Amino acid sequence: MPLSEHEQRMLDQIESALYAEDPKFASNVRGGRFGGATGKRRVFAAIGFAVGLMLLIAGMLLGKVEYTVIVGIAGFLLMFGSVVYALWSGSDKGPRGTVEADGTVRAPSGKGAKRGKSAKASGQSFVARMEERFRRRF
Length: 138
Prior knowledge:
The chain is mainly α. 60% of the residues lie in helices and 3% in strands. The chain contains five helices and two strands. The longest helix has 23 residues, at 39-61.
């Protein structure tokens, strides 16, 4: 469903504010470096999907109904799992660090590290809060 004209204007304003406040962060986000499947992931997912499709078809050709259902469900689950695997954008490498306000990257802290004040409590702008939320996520 397309955005309304008002929603599109609001999105453009947020985007321009983000570029004005932190152009390096905005260019990284816009560059599409986050998310998406790698080539290796796509190949494994395609092979899994093809094998699942073959199992689904082979299940229809079996004589006994019990075997048909079991093989068909196994094929469908393999196909579904392959699609989920291809679309999953989780990083296997873990967090790379936090980008500071001056553009430097701070190494990720340990498992039990304490977090600082929340973005709302520190009086940051909307764009800064969104940036902080994004950093926590990735």
